[in-house]
Write a structure and sequence with these properties.
Layout lengths: L2 H13 L4 E2 L3 H18 L26 H8 L7 E2 L1 H4 L22
Antiparallel strand pairs: 1-2
Helix pairs in contact: 1-2
Length: about 110
């Protein structure tokens, strides 16, 4: 599968849930390529904007769509990566603000 195929597959399923891809298609395709690279590297599509630990259970919270997407889009109109956004965000109806990292610091680096 390539990034364009992943785009078409996810677009349909995620829009039905109220999540849209960022209108910057180049950015989206770059992020989707990162997801595919991580799938090949780790066996799962870890968020390309975060450092994966190569441990599926440890990284469960950052497997795309990550568990932080819903609160990020609800509060900021965009997820941390700006991959998934609300319709209002894409239409410029809400301010494009920085989305802070919600992942707890203790999950950033696996020590053992």
């Amino acid at each position: 599968m390539n990034a364009h195929e992943l785009y078409e597959m996810l677009k349909k399923s995620q829009e039905a849930k109220g999540y849209y891809f960022n209108k910057d298609k180049k950015r989206v395709l770059d992020l989707l390529e990162g997801l595919l690279i991580n799938k090949g590297r780790y066996g799962y599509m870890a968020c390309p904007c975060r450092l994966a630990a190569e441990d599926r259970e440890w990284d469960r919270d950052i497997i795309c769509p990550c568990i932080y997407r819903e609160p990020d889009v609800a509060e900021y109109g965009s997820c941390y990566c700006n991959l998934y956004v609300s319709r209002e965000w894409n239409e410029g109806k809400i301010e494009h603000r920085y989305v802070p990292e919600r992942r707890p610091p203790e999950k950033m680096f696996k020590t053992s």
